[in-house]
Amino acid sequence: MPENESPPSQEVVATQGAPRRSFIDLLRPSRRQLAVALALFLVAFATVTQMRNTQEDDAYSTLRRTDLVQMLDTLDSQSTRLESEVRDLETTRDQLRSGADAQKFAAEQARKRIEVLGILAGTIPAHGKGVRITILDPQEKYTPVLLLDALEELRDAGAEVIEINDKIRMVGSSWVAAGEGNEIVADGQIVTRPIVLDVIGEPHSLEQGARFRGGLVSEAESPTVGGSVLITRPSSVTVTSTTTPVEFVHARPA
Amino acid sequence: MDLLRLVTAGALEAEYLPPAQQTPPTRRSRALLVITVGIAVALLTIAAVQTQRGATAAEAERSDLLARISKYQQQQESLRTQLQDLQREVRDMRSAVVGEATSKELAAAELAAGGRAVQGPGIVVHAEDALDASRLDGRIIDQDLSQLVNGLFESGAEAVSVNDHRITSTTAIRGAGSAITVDYRSLTHPYRIEAVGDPNGLQQRFVETEAASWWEYLRLNYGVRYSISPATDLHLGADPTLNVSFARPGAS
């Protein structure tokens, strides 16, 4: 009986030997295998690093260096603005706190604040430094969407007051839409051509904003529109038109 | 025939022969191998170093710019909070000393300009880039959002905010690279646009605006996702940065 059993057991050994050998091989790789492993490791590492670098590229990855610098400029002036506002308010608070003539001072402060808010809400006329932009559009190809883009660009460049054609005051709740045919409508009024924008704000930034690559000027002067743009910097831009603020029916102070 | 015989005879390279039949590599061939590999490695290294150096100089400048931008943005965030607190403080102190009439007038002016937080019913628009965000066309850009806001005001919205940033007359919705900024602050998607007003009327009028057609076009052609839902109680914060530096009241 033992003689009969031995051959199968040898077979078992033989079949078990193969995996065991490959296991030992794994533990003792040849030099060539080591080289291949190293090469694979390097390639994998480089790929992962590359991918991570690509991913780390943030939301601004499509921006060129000049765009980033421009963005930094805008942020810089915005910071200065915010800082000076904080300083002003601190002075106001301190003066209100000091008690001396507080009532008179408070009344004056309130009046000034009402004026500032009135300028922004478009309820009172305003004047100041700024630009006058004339968009000549003989083919009437300038669209409401382009006008909306132009408004956003001007706001981005620090526009404080915007008026269209000396009669439509553009504020936060303003809108533009297409009228009949090529007509442009702003806040329910027809915008006749040429379109004249009176803008109060830092004149240099405003003009730069309008002339920025892909901006107001290049859009208006593109072959599709075929218009031309004239920008002047009067010593003072006067905006006389006013608007009635949206009536709050559903919104109430929180 | 000689050529054919030569080819068939030498078809098997020496390296493929059993080890016993291989001619051992000569010292010269080994030296040649070492030199070749050495040159290849050196060339690759030089190329890699040069690329890396060029890239790091540009990369360093870029990351410096990005670092400064994010520093500014953080700084401005804290300035805004500070401003909001100061405004509340000054408002309270002021209303304690000025008459009721002035206080009321001031409150109304603040409300109209967007300098006061508001609440009320309205609609909420949820907007998100296409699922396949690798397609540039499927990404929502600044003009899409400004059109949307424009359409909401056209539909009679009383107050609008985008990702909790209140839209006022000085608010600019702009693009900076693939990011959209509102008042110079980058937004992260998804976008949530809230509009206070009559929920039914707003929704009915909005679907007739060009903004609605545009967004429908984006949805159908580029897979941009958006939905409108009514809301009973929305809270929209104030814009703490309402101020002017150049505009003066009155017609000169």
Keywords:
heterodimer; A: 254 residues; alpha+beta; Alpha-Beta Plaits; 3 domains; 7 helices; B: 252 residues; 2 domains; five-stranded antiparallel sheet; 6 helices
Task: Outline the structure in words.
The complex is a heterodimer of chains A (254) and B (252). Chain A is built from 7 helices and 11 strands. Chain A is of the alpha+beta class and 254 residues long. Chain A folds into 3 domains: 2-56, no CATH class; 74-121; 126-239, Protein of unknown function DUF881 (Alpha-Beta Plaits). In chain A, strands 4-3-8-2-9 form a 5-stranded antiparallel sheet, with helices on one face. In chain A, strands 5-6-7 form a 3-stranded antiparallel sheet, covered by helices on one side. The longest helix of chain A has 34 residues, at 65-98. Chain B is of the alpha+beta class. Chain B folds into 2 domains: 24-97; 117-236, Protein of unknown function DUF881 (Alpha-Beta Plaits, 2-Layer Sandwich), CATH 3.30.70.1880. The longest helix of chain B has 71 residues, at 27-97. The radius of gyration of chain B is 34 Å and the shape is elongated. Chains A and B meet through helix 3, helix 4, strand 1, helix 5 and strand 5 of A and helix 2, helix 3, strand 1, helix 4 and strand 4 of B.
**Could you state the CATH homologous superfamily of the largest domain in chain B?**
Protein of unknown function DUF881
Largest sheet of chain A: 5 strands, antiparallel
Low-confidence stretches of chain A: 1-15
CATH class of the largest domain in chain A: Alpha Beta
The fraction of residues assigned to DSSP E strands of chain B is 15-25%
**Biggest β-sheet: strands ordered side by side in the sheet of chain A:** 4-3-8-2-9
Give the radius of gyration of chain A: 35 Å
Give the number of DSSP strands of chain B. Answer: 9
CATH superfamily of the largest domain in chain A: Protein of unknown function DUF881
Strand order of the largest sheet of chain B: 3-2-7-1-8
Oligomer: heterodimer
Number of folding domains of chain A? 3
Largest interface: A-B, 91 and 88 residues
Total DSSP E strands of chain A:
11
Alpha-carbon distance between the two ends of chain A: 98 Å
Classify the secondary structure makeup of chain B into a structural class: alpha+beta
Computed structural class of chain A: alpha+beta
| Strand residues, percent of chain A | 15-25%
Percent of residues in helices of chain B comes to 40-55%
Helix count from the secondary structure assignment of chain A = 7
